[in-house]
Specification:
The complex is a heterodimer of chains A (279) and B (264). By secondary structure, chain A is an alpha/beta fold. Chain A folds into 3 domains: 1-85 and 164-236, P-loop containing nucleotide triphosphate hydrolases (Rossmann fold); 93-163, no CATH class; 246-279, no CATH class. Chain A has helices at residues 44-52, 54-57, 79-82, 93-96, 104-114, 119-133, 148-160, 178-193, 205-211, 229-232, 236-240, 247-257, 270-278; strands spanning 4-12, 21-28, 33-37, 62-69, 72-73, 86-89, 166-170, 197-201, 214-219, 222-227. In chain A, the strands form 2 sheets. Chain A has a 6-stranded mixed sheet, sandwiched between helices. A 4-stranded antiparallel sheet of chain A has the order 2-1-4-5, covered by helices on one side. The longest helix of chain A has 16 residues, at 178-193. In chain B, strands 6-7-8-3-9-10 form a 6-stranded mixed sheet. The longest helix of chain B has 16 residues, at 169-184. Chain B starts with a strand and ends with a helix. By secondary structure, chain B is of the alpha/beta class. The chains are: A alpha/beta (279), B alpha/beta (264). Chains A and B meet through helix 7, helix 8, helix 12 and helix 13 of A and helix 5, helix 6, helix 10 and helix 11 of B.
Chain lengths: 279, 264
């Protein structure tokens, strides 16, 4: 049994006609870093909600199939049991910030307070998490006085501090500056290597290609493709179905048509593009 | 319409000095991208353009209007501002009412409002969603509603604060199309973005901010090629620019056509 296992998961939000997820089967091993890509409306956020237990526990609606994480079944667990294993960073950090705390430090401690972590341990875990994401200098600021990207780092940190076994991230770098984005991907990669299982929704193909173990491409609520980044991200199916692809891949594809790209496979990273164009 | 910023300084009540002496001129019809590290002051800067923030020192002129002497309501006829987070902007019960709100507030004739709303809906491909409550749309379509409701105001200056955030390839192309359309019409466009590839492909002038100051300002080709200086404000050059550099191309390339021509 895989660490995360979805079997025939179909889900429909209340008051909607078509399912947001259709017959999803997915197995993820412990410590694996899986990136989920797809056009808007493909079901990426809904998949995040399903993994985090918000679907169906919070959103209600109709669900069939089973979702298991760490040997527990979502349908048979309560949300307060579920959050001990799974953490979700929201797509929009503005929606995640509690509004109940005056400083970034307290905001990050909020989740730990709720699960009754002792005071001294709480302090050191908050310090460590802030150091990890590089926001120690924001500790005494109000979460609402921050820029969008800074707020997003706080939202991410407040989940990392919970040390979930499964970390679910819905576009965690969408408002971050480019080098900050690359650093966050590196941090997430390192956490996966230390044993955390990661599911990440993103549009930034360059960093998915470089850091993720596997890519799941969703389209209209179903899995269209699944596999290694080098296989999935170079598939012709992506461009045909409205997926974004990196400039390395798209430019090499065009170059291939003009006889300027000699290799059989298309590149997904800068290094591969450099190697291929040097031929 | 021209934007003229002279020695602009701004400090938040918390004591944070967000802008530390910025002087810039953005000419009528120019399309400018602003890039830079989170917290560099990008949003703080553009919020001075429509009077949401007032200079602590220095001045901002929108055409011949000094923002210190002009109300936000009046400035709204010259400066349209699409917020970073559409949820901070949208409030109407359906898409059509939302998009009609701006131009109606500016006192345009009914015919003009109808025309502007129709065009904004078409440009953002929202024509089939007019009766939907914006909050029943996905976040990405809400962003398009926010965009449409500002474009419909037909202001000579349009500001986009991170328009491509969380957008898929199709929507990014739609947004690029909107910006191209505004260029055709001679509008001044100022766009904050972290999407450097989008920036390289759609803007001729790039301003990099760092710690409340202008770090770089110039033609996109020059600014986006300065890898080491951009790194100071946490910005990477575009993918193809980096690829070109690694391959030893002499020219800084910004997009696919330039790249393929250079390696030919």
């Amino acid at each position: 049994m895989a660490f995360v296992e979805l079997q025939n998961v179909t889900y429909k939000y209340p008051l909607t006609k078509t399912p947001a997820l259709q017959n999803i089967n997915l197995q993820i091993n412990e410590g694996e870093f899986v990136a989920v890509i797809g056009p808007n409306g493909a079901g990426k956020s809904t998949l995040c909600y399903a993994l985090a237990g918000f679907v169906p526990h919070f959103f209600k609606g109709e669900i069939s199939g089973t979702i298991e994480v760490a040997g527990k079944e979502s349908g048979k667990s309560t949300l307060d049991e579920w959050v001990l294993n799974v953490g979700l960073a929201f797509q929009n950090p503005f929606n995640q910030i509690s509004g109940a705390k005056y400083t970034v430090f307290e905001e990050i401690a909020f989740g730990l307070e709720n699960i009754g972590v002792p005071r001294e341990e709480m302090k050191s875990r908050v310090e460590d998490a802030m150091a990890l994401t590089g926001i120690r200098d924001l500790a005494d600021r109000s979460p609402y006085s921050l820029s969008g990207g800074q707020q997003q780092r706080v939202a991410l940190t407040s989940i990392l501090v919970m040390q979930p076994k499964l970390l679910v991230l819905d576009e965690p770098t969408s408002q971050m500056d480019p080098i900050g984005t690359r650093e966050v991907f590196g941090t997430i990669r390192k956490m996966a290597e230390d044993g955390m299982t990661v599911v990440l929704v993103e549009h930034k193909m360059e960093w998915i290609a470089q850091f993720a173990d596997r890519v799941v491409a969703l389209k209209d609520g179903s899995v269209l493709l699944e596999g290694k980044p080098s296989e999935v991200l170079t598939s012709d199916l992506l461009a045909e179905n409205g997926f974004g692809i990196s400039r390395y891949t798209s430019t090499a594809r065009e170059a291939k048509k003009r006889g300027l790209w000699k290799k059989e496979n298309l590149p997904v990273t800068l290094d591969e593009a450099v190697a291929g164009f040097k031929l | 319409m021209k934007i003229e910023i002279t020695n602009l300084r701004f400090t938040y009540p918390t004591g944070l000095e967000a802008l530390q002496g910025i002087s810039l001129t953005i000419n009528a019809g120019e399309q400018v991208a602003i890039v830079g590290q989170n917290g560099a002051g990008k949003t703080t800067l553009v919020r001075h353009f429509n009077g949401l923030l007032q200079p602590a020192c220095g001045s901002v002129l929108i055409g011949d209007w000094d923002t210190k002497k002009t109300s936000v309501a009046k400035l709204a006829s010259r400066v349209g501002y699409v917020f970073q987070n559409p949820d901070e902007q949208l409030f109407s019960r359906d898409v059509l009412t939302e998009i009609t709100f701006g131009p109606r507030n500016l006192g345009y004739s009914k015919e003009k409002i109808d025309g502007l709303v129709k065009r904004a809906l078409a440009l953002t491909e929202l024509s089939d969603k007019t009766e939907i409550n914006p909050y029943d749309l996905s976040p990405t379509w809400r962003k398009m509603v926010a965009l449409a409701s500002i474009i419909a105001m037909d202001t000579p200056i349009v500001i986009f604060d991170e328009p491509t955030t969380g957008q898929d390839a199709l929507n990014v192309a739609r947004i690029a199309n909107v910006i191209a359309e505004l260029r055709q019409e001679g509008k001044t466009v100022v766009t904050i973005t972290h999407d450097i590839d989008f920036c390289a492909e759609n803007f001729e002038r790039v301003i990099a901010l760092s710690n409340g100051q202008v770090l770089l300002d110039g033609p996109a080709r020059e600014v986006l090629g300065r890898e080491e200086i951009l790194a100071q404000t946490y910005v990477d050059p575009p993918q193809l620019t980096r690829l070109g550099k690694r391959l030893g191309l002499k020219e800084t390339v910004r997009n696919q056509e330039e790249f393929l021509k250079a390696i030919w």
